[in-house]
Write a structure and sequence with these properties.
424 residues; Rossmann fold; Dna Ligase, domain 1; D-amino Acid Aminotransferase, Chain A, domain 1; 4 domains; 5-stranded parallel sheet; 5-stranded antiparallel sheet; globular; binds adenosine monophosphate; binds glycine
Amino acid sequence: MKILVIGQGGREHALVWKLAQSQIVEKIYCMPGNAGIAQIAEVIPMPDRFADLADWAESENIGLTVVGPEVPLAEGIVDTFNERRLKAFGPDKRAAQLEASKDFAKELMVKNDIPTASHRTFVDAEEAMAYIEDHNTPVFVKANGLAAGKGVIPGRTFKEAVQAVTSILVDRAFGEAGDSVVIEEELIGEEASFTVLTDGTYCLPFVSSQDHKMSHDGDTGKNTGGMGAYSPAPVITPELHDYVMQRVVYPTVNGMAEIGCSFKGVLYVGLMITDAGPKVLEFNCRFGDPEAQVLLPRLKSDLVPLLMACVDGTLAQHADVQWHDDAAACVIMASGGYPDPYQTGEVITGLEDAASIHGVNVFHAGTKQDGDNIVTAGGRVLCVTATADGLHDAIQQAYQGVSAIQFADAHFRNDIGYRALERD
Ligand code: AMP
Ligand code: GLY
């Protein structure tokens, strides 16, 4: 079978890497890809229109298209493929609202009694400010739409919360994504990512993981797309796992089906484990990045039949999915300055030395080929991932990989996995 992967980050490199191990895959294409993906798949520029992409997929006889990021899902890429009877993995446009509209997600949670922070949604800035005045800070102020992980602003004080509302609703810092704001109470606890595959009816849980969203050590600095991840996340005990499946995952998937928005694909639940139990921070409609980089190396089973079963509605036949016992850790090497503006075009060296370390895989994110060199081409540049017997060793090996790699102004966190290690 020929497979097309859409996307260009570390998540997509990990997807291509895992899909390439399948016995039933004959060739993988990736649009637009990056320098690392180009070493194991054919990378092709992405056409502007989904219809042109579907034409191409039809002419190339692509058996399955796997959509990595949320934006094309929210824009209806899967709808276009479905209309053409082409198989595409991921939710359609209506179902992708679970990530693309925080208000939609909150309403679904309220309706189905899914534990989450209390909230109100506003389109009017003055009403939003009056609400903040009547409630205690801290609150979290969130642009309703997709804002590349940057649309959530903590309002620790009244002044900060008002500034956040002004920046989203008045100054339009996130454009249309800020047509409305969701204001939420603060949840306190430890975060974890809970990932399931679903065909709209059956839900197949992945092993647990946790990412590190803040740019600097000790969870300080700015919110980023994710500076590292590890799996398993010991905060998710077997009891919490069952609770999340029963109180969050199935009510979400069933609730979506009830309103005619059957959700097929990856349901990624961002959780806060509070003293009162797990509560939902957000839903994503695709694999986490960098969570995918630690989840996929732990998956022993072939990924292709699992993704196909989500599309075909036969996922229940795959309940016996197999996992490696090894733990996995991923350290992101970013361009200096990220998530603020940064330089690109810096030459990267040491990639082969890093990859030769036992258990280490270097997934590329923002990289491109420039003559004989691989150079930086984005904020998050490399995802240095290691699998080993136990988290401690996985983390240590990932950092060995990091120290083998050089590029000017490289920035990475030194404390990936610290919460898990503290539990040892
Ligand atoms: P979100 O994209 O909604 O998951 O928010 C991004 C990050 O902001 C989360 O991973 C949390 O670290 C933080 N966050 C969002 N909402 C809350 C909340 N209600 N209480 C505490 N932290 C939050
Ligand atoms: N790592 C967070 C995300 O993918 O949204």
